[in-house]
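Reopening this one. Same input as before:
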Amino acid sequence: PSTTASYTSTIFWWLSLPASEASLRQSFSKRLASSSDMSTSLRATLTAARHLAEGHRLVVAFQPLPWSRTAIFHRELGEALGLADDVVVLEVYGSNEEPIPGASGALVAAAVPLPPDHVLFEQSFSAVPAWLAERAAPGDLVLTLGDGIVSTLGPEVVDLLRARAARAGGP
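Same output, byte for byte:
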């Protein structure tokens, strides 16, 4: 496997404002690269996000990549994800690799040291935005982390949170 892993992170702030003023803003989206394994970058990203959250929760969607790296580093990835409060792990983004028997996003999810009701392995990509939005409370940071198409979930999460704020009387 390649010695370089990269992933995209998208972080959204679900602002802690009175319900009548609740809104959502995208904080930042950037590409990160690591010359070692993805777990190092993942841990650094979640540690920084924890500081940004200022006492609020981290709600994370993570898509591991590729199959070979997931097979090798699933435990380290799961441990790093334990820095979040709620985690949904998607199936591996295989890139140009063939699947490796036994390697799966489920291995990563099983290694997350959080209570079972705070971790989900979700094979349905389309189910993830609703899962994230259901768990996000005002002030929480919602992150999509991984490579491939995981960052495309962000706009749908934003739409769901805006709709929820509108139903609650916000903008």
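So the earlier flakiness isn't reproducible anymore. For the record, The longest strand covers residues 24-34.
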